[in-house]
Amino acid sequence: MSKSLFRKKSIISILKDAQDGLTDAHGGGELNKVLKVKDLTALGIAAVIGAGIFSTIGEASFHGGPGVSLLFIITAVTCGFSALCYAEFASRVPVSGSAYTYSYVTFGEIAAWIIGWALILEYAIGNIAVAISWSGYFNNLLAGIGKGLGINLSFPEWLTSNYDSASPELYAAAPHIFGLPVILNLPAFIIVVLVTYLAFVGIRESKRSANFMVGLKILVILFVIVVGAFFVNTDNWTPFMPNGFSGVLKGVSAVFFAYIGFDAISTTAEECANPQRDLPKGMIYSLVICTVLYILIAFVLTGMVSYSQLKVDDPLAFVFNAVNLPKVSFLISVSAVIATTSVLLVFQIGQPRIWMSMSRDGLLPKRFSIIHPKFKTPSFATIVTGFLVGVPALFLNLTVVTDLTSIGTLFAFILVCGGVLLLPKQEKDPHSKRFSLPYINGQFIVPAIIIIFAYIFRNELPQRFSFAGGWDVWKHNIPFFFFAVAALVFTFLSFRHKLSLIPVLGLLSCFYLMTEIGFRNWVVFSIWLLIGLVIYFGYSYSRSKLAQA
Prior knowledge:
Order of helices and strands: HHHHHHHHEEHHHHHHHHHHHHHHHHH
Structural class: mainly alpha
Low-confidence stretches: 22-28
Helix content: 55-70%
CATH superfamily: Amino acid/polyamine transporter I
Number of helices: 25
Distance between the termini: 15 Å
CATH topology: Amino acid/polyamine transporter I
Number of domains: 1
Radius of gyration: 23 Å
CATH class: Mainly Alpha
CATH architecture: Up-down Bundle
């Protein structure tokens, strides 16, 4: 039983299955290999620059002040370690599936299922939140246009709300069917349908749309940075960290939520012209570009107004209204609609390709790996993704799910970084253009970093391990306790076995960021994983291709 749970697929067999699975009875042939470096970079930027830069950055700035710029750097470095590990996997295993496929190679089937199930949470729930956020931006944009024309263009409130947050007045004002009020978020549903259709009809059409939206929103963001710089009051940057470093870290989930997009690039491996060379470049380029833009935006935001005023849903529009530039605020609203649309598109592309990979392995029904004969996309999986995101977005209030999405992503990053340590060593061909993760001996560097970390947080560590506050206080330190154990274990392993530095730092930094996410989200995430295990043992375990073999 234990051996079968950790049965692994070899890299050779995964590459063969990917080729065979695209030409079998499911029809459709192989996916279109049309993506190049600029397209992958654009997809990464499309996913990273979205709701984070237009909404969650305000909450992070409120807690961290101007020091939130440091958080963007810390998060970018953390993601950089993970991106390098993703790049190593992408060059060695150039097939769809992202962290799911990588875990199947290194940790085995049960870990692959768990991470695949976690990625469903990351992509689907994250996109529900983005769709609902898009609805708010779009309705505000319509209201602004209508105000300029002297007419009312915005949707009525009962068509942009949900039962969870509706007021008693809205219940009374909404139309009733069979005595029940009709309250739903129609714009959120419509945009999911349109984006799902775009993802369904082809990767070529999707990349063109993504490239256009990315170009437009980067121009708008650069314009905002340049114009905003003229209204910066440097006095607002003092104090730099008004709530200390702990205040900066309070925004970790909101900031990290903005960075998770590069993960989606790896799901398009089979649609890359040269995945071994182009995927790593696309990931790293998009990460660097987005980090620079986020840091500049953070300085502009906290310089134009006091950090204490930034706890708003639309911080960019808010600061330009504060300096009496409503036209720029309107331009930002347009850009926010475009930005969130591009995020929806990238994740609606990524989710079906993970399901396609799981279906090939027998862990999901065969229908999920059907390739459309004309559009060359995983058609059934794309339609199911549309329903999974569109229907909840129509009725639910899930605008605050950044913590839950971030914890799933960080979990995926940890397994990818750990998986690189288990990959068999491969001699570097000097004539090969394939990306190879540079080996840096962590024997002495990892212990030194852990000692420095412990010294910096020497005043905080006793509180982390204290039971003085009782269970209600200490339960929030449980994740940190597991991180401390992991840090000691990997310090020992690094010293004993000379582990590669980059994967170890990626694993530990992601684990630390997870400790800053609330305990309640850990509980919900654990329940989600338990549900996934029930499905695995009830359906997937016996139907796995490795089990059949």
